[in-house]
Amino acid sequence: MVTLISSFYNEQYLLPWWLKHHKKIFDHGILFDYFSTDNSVKIIKNICPKWEVRPTKNTNWDPRTNDSEFMEAERQSKGYKITLTTTEFLVGLFPKLSKFETAYEIPIVRMVDTKPEKIPVYDKPLIEQKNVGYLDEGFRKRFLHNHPDGAYSVGRDRTHHKRYKIPLWVYKYSYSPWTKKLIKRRLQMQKHMSDEHLAQGWGKQHKYDRTGLQKEYEFLLKTANLKTWNFFY
Predict the structure, then answer these.
(1) Is residue 233 included in any domain, yes or no?
(2) CA atoms within 13 A on the CB side of 121
(3) Distance of CA 84 to the CA centre of its chain
């Protein structure tokens, strides 16, 4: 059993690609709804009808309570599990996984849209249409594990478990596809973050306004070590 755990708020733009991609990989999914008002739930029920949609117990998007809810779901799930956001696509081929308690470290490739005029379509996988990015060589990782829970630091970028390498990557679509819908999706997160979350300096990427996002995107186009990532399922 391999379970995908995530949360969502008005993610109807990315969800069709994200669900179609991951339903081929995972046996089960647990998705927490953060008070969505769009068609997100309907899209999930249509594409992955057997996956669980749970209302969040939290009132705001705070990394500590969010992580706590994720780890509670992990403790309820047998076998391997991974927690991803709707911008994150797991890519690669699963090797034989250990039967012992193990955590695999998965690096993040941050995708940057070098051809924003080319609008992606839903009848083709997003990772085939938008596959230019750069390897995030910082501390941020994702983890596939079969421990009771991930024992994460705040934000789930690190874990206290011993980690092993595995030939998997996470393609993170923060700046790709660079469309009005993705930008709107980025901006909507601000109103769901708690005041304490903002005061602690967490989630700085969610504080940008439209101008700030555009400047960051243009900066990455010029400075990031961009290349095409062609590892598809």
Answers:
(1) no
(2) 2
(3) 4
**pLDDT > 90? residue 199:** no
Range list of β-strands (E), the chain: 2-8, 28-33, 52-55, 80-83, 88-92, 103-112, 132-135, 141-145, 163-165, 168-175, 227-228
pLDDT digits (tens, 9 = 90+) for 152-184: 988 898 999 999 999 999 999 999 999 999 999
Do the beta carbons of residue 44 and residue 86 sit within 8 Å?
A: no
At 64-91, the pLDDT tens digits run 889 999 999 999 999 999 999 999 999 9
CB 231 within 8 A of CB 167: no
Q: Note whether residue 89 is domain-resident.
A: yes
Residues shown for the chain: 233
- Residue 33 main-chain phi, psi, to 5 deg: -90, 115
Count of structural domains, the chain: 1
Task: Quote the tokens at residue 172.
Answer: 């993170």
Specify the CATH number for the domain of residue 108.
3.90.550
Residue 156 in any domain: the answer is yes
Please tell me what DSSP assigns to residue 195: H
For the chain, what is the total number of helices (H) and then of strands (E)?
7, 11
Q: Dihedrals φ, ψ of 222, to 5°?
A: -85, -35
Distance of alpha carbon 142 from alpha carbon 25, whole angstroms: 16
Domain annotation covers residue 63: yes
CB atoms within 10 A of CB 233: 13
> Which residue range forms the structural domain that includes residue 186?
2-228
Residue 63: its H or E element = helix 63-75
Please tell me whether residue 43 adopts helix, strand or coil conformation. Answer: helix
